[in-house]
């Protein structure tokens, strides 16, 4: 047989082309997962999500198609795969439903990164002790700003009322029309009477926040029998509590609703909050602001601010305006503890 010449031996049909990595066209279509089962995320731990559905607990991970979308406690999700909840099984979260509310904070006021604390809460209970440790009004103010910005109803819960009179603290927030509940220890015991607190939480999804040592986990343990949240003591030197809760967890209340316990916080950054939105939480004050000059931020002493005109005319409550401006100052880091 005659040899092929170099020029005639091969042509392009002889070359086997192997597709390179990533050369396969990616479809933008994603599975609809119409059969996904709805569930509620109640805990998050190192990439594993504890979900509840139909009275059982299921462990899940996020599906690849969700990408970097964060899933947090309180999210309502769709699950596929192994949803029996049997030991060693793992379901997949394939969908995160639209959130009704999002409570978020930043590490500080200069940090542009928002950290979502919980989703779909309709009530924020700010827990503070009247003493041991001392109240931190600036943290309370900042939590109120976050609640107003998120459209979540705030509730002030004052603990350790047997150590000091809670009335001054309650009165300080009365102009903001923030409801307050006082949790007192039962005489001669270490047990706190939580019946009034439970009434405020019934049929709500309530997230608890507060700095360490104020008694959040103690409240949760009495509100939810068997919760077994770790509790700690206040450091006698620093006057601060020790972090006992390390992650957020949602727990069902015996009489209906959910309570979400969160780790104690030392700071509450509000870089994500637009000060111009805060006025919307105060309809009586917002009604006066159309007469403000353009760009007015409504601070105390702002030139030609219509709120000062309304104050002089007696159209706004002076205590309420002062409280609103205190929140503004807290948002901009101008107020101390």
Looking at this protein, list some descriptive labels.
337 residues; alpha/beta; OB fold (Dihydrolipoamide Acetyltransferase, E2P); Rossmann fold; Ribonucleotide Reductase Protein R1, domain 1; 3 domains; 6-stranded mixed β-sheet; 5-stranded mixed beta barrel
- Assign the structural class, choosing from mainly alpha, mainly beta, alpha/beta, alpha+beta, or little secondary structure: alpha/beta
Largest sheet: 6 strands, mixed
**Helix segment tally:** 9
| Overall average pLDDT | 84
What order do the strands of the largest sheet run in, or round the barrel if closed?
Answer: 10-9-8-13-15-14
Report the CATH C-level class of the largest domain.
Alpha Beta
CATH level-3 fold name of the largest domain: Rossmann fold
CATH architecture of the largest domain: 3-Layer(aba) Sandwich
- Tally of individual domains: 3
Q: What percent strand?
A: 15-25%
How many strands?
15
Can you identify the CATH superfamily of the largest domain? P-loop containing nucleotide triphosphate hydrolases
Indicate the overall shape. globular
- The run of helices and strands is HEEEEEEEEHEHEEEHEHEEHHHH
Point out poorly predicted stretches: 232-244
Helix content: 10-25%
Distance between the termini: 98 Å
């Amino acid at each position: 047989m005659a040899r092929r010449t170099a020029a005639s031996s091969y042509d392009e049909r002889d070359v086997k082309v192997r597709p390179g990595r990533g050369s396969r066209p990616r479809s933008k279509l994603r599975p609809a997962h119409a059969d996904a089962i709805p569930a509620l995320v109640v805990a998050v731990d190192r990439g594993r999500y504890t979900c509840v559905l139909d009275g059982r607990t299921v462990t899940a991970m996020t599906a690849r198609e969700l990408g970097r979308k964060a899933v947090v406690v309180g999210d309502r999700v769709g699950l596929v795969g192994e949803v029996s909840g049997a030991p060693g099984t793992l379901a997949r979260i394939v969908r995160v439903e639209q959130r009704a509310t999002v409570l978020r904070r930043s590490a500080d006021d200069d940090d542009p990164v928002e950290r979502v604390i919980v989703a779909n809460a309709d009530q924020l209970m700010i827990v503070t002790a009247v003493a041991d440790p001392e109240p931190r009004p600036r943290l309370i103010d900042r939590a109120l700003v976050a609640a107003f910005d998120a459209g979540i109803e705030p509730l002030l819960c004052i603990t350790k009322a047997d150590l000091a009179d809670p009335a001054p603290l309650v009165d300080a927030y009365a102009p903001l029309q923030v409801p307050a509940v006082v949790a007192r220890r039962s005489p001669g015991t270490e047990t706190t009477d939580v019946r009034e607190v439970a009434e405020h939480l019934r049929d709500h999804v309530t997230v608890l926040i507060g700095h360490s040592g104020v008694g959040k986990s103690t409240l949760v343990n009495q509100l939810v029998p068997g919760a077994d949240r770790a509790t700690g003591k206040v450091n006698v030197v620093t006057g601060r509590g020790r972090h006992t809760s390390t992650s957020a967890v949602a727990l069902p209340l015996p009489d209906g609703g959910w309570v979400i316990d969160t780790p104690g916080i030392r700071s509450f950054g509000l870089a994500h909050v637009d000060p111009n939105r805060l006025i919307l939480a105060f309809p009586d004050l917002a009604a006066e602001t159309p007469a403000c000059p353009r760009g007015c931020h409504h601070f105390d002493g702002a030139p030609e601010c219509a709120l000062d005109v309304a104050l002089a005319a007696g159209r706004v409550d002076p205590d309420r305006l002062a409280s609103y401006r205190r929140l503004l100052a807290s948002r901009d880091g101008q107020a101390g503890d």
